[in-house]
């Protein structure tokens, strides 16, 4: 009996203790703040982290106003305010930070010493004979060279600029003499015996070669331009004069840099201003035969074109022509240009818009046309860093090809290779076959090419001596894991190669390793319910690769998950990670959790989505649910959504913290039916979610922006299931939108025929599809209260799209409100975003939570603008 009483007593004590813990748990959550509108603009996060060369120190930005410097092995740290830029010295003894306003801080790493210099316009840090030096130019024209430990070496007054060749310790500076002339001087670091290499009018646009033995610059005198050149073997002399007269229609703009071998100087020329342009009528005349539709630019901006100065034969010539884009410039002075004479979005029907690639020898300007492509293939052309190879993807054969620059020989590289080279993220757009994923890089000797498919990494022998093979052995495809290089393959000196890894099934992220000699034997280092680097193709996750210390096997990585801010961690093996930054602003707020939900769409397809719940979630309560959507988003399961004003899309943490569930599904599209595909997905997800006891099936809402705004408009015209919807800057009429012009002057047609809007045909080929996907045609079917945000400055989706929908809703007496922010464009920012966020919250609170109606929804008279004024 005594034992029984003792057992009962123990059980009572345990029950009391558990009850106490539950009460404390509830109390702690009750003390956490709900995100409000005032919290959205000041969220602190870390960014731009780096390591010292020895790997013992790290520095990163914390928020917008602070730089943190830390020892990764001890508690030593310093925090500097208002940083502009910073760098570690190569000996890992100092960090130099330039602040807003011109102040410089010199931090002695591991010590309490911080030296400061005020009023600095420009600085440079270099090492010579084992010592670190700082060179800086003050705003009063004083040029100073000093040891970083504080000892002054020398200083010069009346200096306006300086340049450094750090490997040999040469310093060039520009000063003004008492006679009023400018002098360009060269000297060594010790400051003895400065040599005047030029005296005259002011030299501008100065460029140095890698050895410091050559310098080139531009001089302008009374409107006359001349190029000057100095080397250790010759005195400075003017090589070319009156350059503008020898480049018809163009004017020299400046010099940029020397070539690797020091024989060429790269610069640029610009269009000459047309002095008669201001007197011309601004009438625009368009012809059906015009190669492009885009509107001429009357802003006065001049286009820039690559030009080359060959020092051996003293020729200066323009390399790049109008309509050409410089893609790659190799170390052997070869360049790859892409040309399109029309608007790129018209390539499927306009011959002028079809891209071609041109290989240019920068030594003499000789050009070789590599392709006159009939499609988007030209975007895949890549020139190797040493200039030996051009590699490109051919969409018709679904293979990669190589072009040997020296011989002109082409070779099909991936014949019979079992791989999918095209983008996973763009696999459901009409032009999907043209979007190859891209290459992983070249080996350091350019004998091998590394290719990415949707999951794995392949190795190709560019000379054709060996068959291609899958480095990862197909492990990625078999296990739904995407492998990519964590570091460029030509920079990886160790046998063990680090790979980033992302699971498309579980959404976990991490790292693997592999040795090229042991093909297929990938080794898992870490996979976690987090994001380290993130999926390569994501529209939402900012992919950030690890940073390696220059002279140590120490790495800085970023890690986050849905409940924990992005922070920096240090690792030496990619297995163990030590937190460095420790910035977690979400801990004092009622935050969120995320979980993966799998469901069936109405047409029977499998789909993934993310359900976000408040941190203080109570399964015994009923919650309102808002759907947010665009395309594929489930890769963000472990992504940290930063609180901020709603700029178009809903801000997920803001709404979840305030008691909403938010569901974000992947949309998989059928070409021709983007609206129906979205409807099928959202309705299928709703069918799954309403079975959960805590989802209030009568209080479900919709929110989407841009393409998501169109999806919202389509859904509300096809169902009465949802209690409220917010549509921001979305299409409502595919017929009128098809013929519209985007803000950059391009036709919208290609977007419907080829890409995101996914019709896959012209209006005249399939008018039924354009009508099917035009929600304005079914406004009479709307029963869902609508909040529309569409601005008169929107040059992406024209405001007339929102006008058509709203006026239809108003005409039929449908509950609807239209927000329009004066001067705003496709999205809203600043105070407009805060206002939009508050109004969206008030709108959903009224319809989904039954709270008091906001006063702005009771105002029946128009405010701010009339429709007529808006459309102007």
UniProtKB/TrEMBL annotation:
Asked if the keyword Electron transport belongs to this entry, the reply reads no
Q: Which UniProt keywords apply?
A: Hydrolase, Membrane, Transmembrane, Transmembrane helix
Q: Name all Peptidase S9 prolyl oligopeptidase catalytic domain ranges.
A: 675-850
One record GO biological process = proteolysis
TM regions (residue ranges): 12-30
Q: Which domain of life is it from?
A: Bacteria
Record's signal peptide? none
Checking InterPro entries in the record gives: 6-blade_b-propeller_TolB-like, AB_hydrolase_fold, Peptidase_S9_cat
By what name is this protein known?
S9 family peptidase
Source organism of this protein record: Chitinophaga varians
């Amino acid at each position: 009996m005594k034992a029984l009483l003792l057992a009962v007593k123990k059980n009572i004590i345990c029950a009391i203790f558990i009850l106490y813990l539950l009460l404390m748990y509830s109390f702690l959550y009750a003390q956490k703040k709900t995100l409000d509108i005032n919290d959205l603009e000041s969220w602190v996060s870390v960014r731009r982290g780096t390591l010292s060369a020895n790997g013992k120190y790290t520095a990163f930005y914390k928020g917008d106003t602070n730089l943190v410097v830390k020892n990764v092995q001890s508690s030593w740290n310093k925090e500097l305010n208002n940083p502009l830029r910073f760098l570690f010295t190569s000996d890992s003894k100092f960090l130099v930070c330039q602040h807003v306003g011109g102040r410089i801080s010199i931090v002695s790493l591991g010590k309490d010493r911080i030296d400061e210099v005020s009023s600095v316009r420009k600085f440079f840090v270099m090492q010579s004979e084992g010592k670190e030096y700082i060179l800086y130019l003050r705003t009063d024209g004083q040029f100073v060279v000093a040891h970083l430990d504080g000892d002054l070496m020398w200083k010069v007054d009346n200096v306006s600029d300086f340049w450094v060749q750090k490997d040999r310790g040469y310093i060039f500076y520009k000063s003004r003499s008492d006679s009023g002339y400018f002098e360009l001087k060269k000297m060594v670091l010790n400051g003895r015996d400065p040599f005047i290499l030029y005296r005259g009018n002011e030299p501008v646009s100065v460029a140095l070669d890698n050895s410091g033995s050559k310098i080139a610059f531009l001089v302008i005198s009374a409107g006359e331009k001349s190029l000057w050149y100095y080397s250790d073997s010759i005195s400075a002399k003017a090589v070319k004069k009156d350059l503008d007269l020898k480049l018809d229609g163009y004017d020299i703009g400046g010099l940029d840099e020397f070539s690797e071998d020091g024989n060429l100087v790269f610069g640029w020329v610009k269009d000459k201003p047309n002095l008669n342009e201001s007197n011309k009528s601004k009438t625009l005349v368009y012809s059906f035969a015009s190669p492009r539709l885009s509107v001429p630019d009357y802003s006065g901006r001049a286009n820039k074109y690559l030009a080359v100065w060959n020092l051996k034969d003293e020729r200066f010539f323009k390399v790049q022509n109008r309509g050409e884009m410089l893609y790659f410039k190799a170390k052997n002075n070869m360049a790859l240009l892409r040309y399109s004479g029309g608007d790129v979005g018209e390539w499927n029907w306009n011959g002028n818009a079809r891209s071609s690639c041109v290989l240019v020898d920068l030594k003499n300007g000789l050009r070789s046309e590599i392709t006159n492509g009939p499609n988007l293939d030209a975007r895949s052309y890549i020139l190797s860093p040493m200039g030996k190879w051009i590699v490109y993807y051919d969409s018709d054969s679904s293979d990669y090809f190589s072009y040997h620059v020296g011989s002109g020989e082409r070779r099909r590289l991936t014949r019979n290779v079992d791989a999918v080279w095209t983008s996973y993220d763009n696999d459901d757009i009409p032009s999907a076959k043209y979007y190859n994923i891209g290459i992983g890089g070249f080996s350091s000797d350019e004998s091998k090419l590394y290719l990415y498919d949707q999951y794995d990494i392949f190795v190709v022998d560019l000379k054709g001596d060996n068959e291609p093979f899958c480095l990862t052995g197909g492990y990625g495809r078999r296990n739904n894991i995407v492998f990519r290089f964590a570091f460029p393959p030509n920079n990886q000196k160790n046998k063990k190669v680090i790979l980033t890894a992302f699971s498309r099934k579980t959404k976990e992220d991490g790292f693997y390793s592999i040795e090229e000699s042991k093909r297929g034997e990938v080794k898992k280092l870490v996979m976690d319910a987090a994001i380290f680097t993130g999926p390569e193709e994501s529209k939402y996750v900012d992919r950030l690769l690890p940073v390696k210390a220059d002279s140590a096997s120490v790495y800085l990585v970023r890690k986050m998950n849905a409940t924990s801010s992005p922070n920096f961690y240090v690792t030496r093996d990619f297995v163990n990670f030590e937190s460095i930054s420790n910035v977690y602003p979400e801990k004092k707020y009622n935050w969120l959790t995320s979980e993966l939900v799998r469901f069936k769409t109405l047409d029977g397809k499998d789909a993934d989505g993310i359900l976000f719940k408040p941190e203080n979630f109570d399964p015994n309560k009923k919650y309102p649910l808002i759907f947010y959507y665009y395309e594929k988003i489930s890769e963000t399961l472990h992504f940290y959504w930063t609180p901020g004003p709603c700029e178009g899309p809903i801000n997920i943490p803001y709404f979840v913290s305030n008691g909403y569930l938010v569901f974000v599904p992947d949309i998989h599209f059928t070409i021709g039916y983007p609206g129906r595909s979205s409807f099928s997905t959202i309705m299928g997800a709703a069918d799954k979610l309403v079975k959960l006891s805590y989802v209030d099936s009568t209080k479900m809402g919709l929110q989407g922006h841009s393409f998501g705004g169109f999806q919202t408009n389509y859904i509300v015209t096809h169902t009465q299931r949802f209690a409220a919807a917010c549509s921001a800057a979305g299409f409502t009429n595919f017929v009128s939108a098809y013929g519209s012009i985007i803000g950059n002057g391009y036709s919208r047609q290609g977007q419907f025929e080829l890409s995101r809007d996914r019709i896959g045909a012209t209006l005249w080929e399939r008018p039924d599809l354009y009508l099917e996907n035009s929600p304005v045609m079914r406004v009479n079917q709307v029963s869902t209260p609508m909040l529309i945000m569409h601005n008169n400055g929107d040059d992406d989706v024209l405001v007339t799209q929102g006008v058509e929908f709203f006026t239809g809703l108003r005409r039929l007496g449908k509950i609807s409100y239209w927000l329009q922010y004066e001067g705003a464009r496709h999205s809203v920012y600043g105070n407009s975003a805060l206002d939009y966020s508050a109004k969206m919250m008030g709108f959903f609170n009224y319809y989904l939570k039954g709270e008091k109606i906001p006063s702005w929804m009771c105002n029946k008279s128009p405010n701010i603008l009339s429709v007529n004024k808006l459309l102007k």
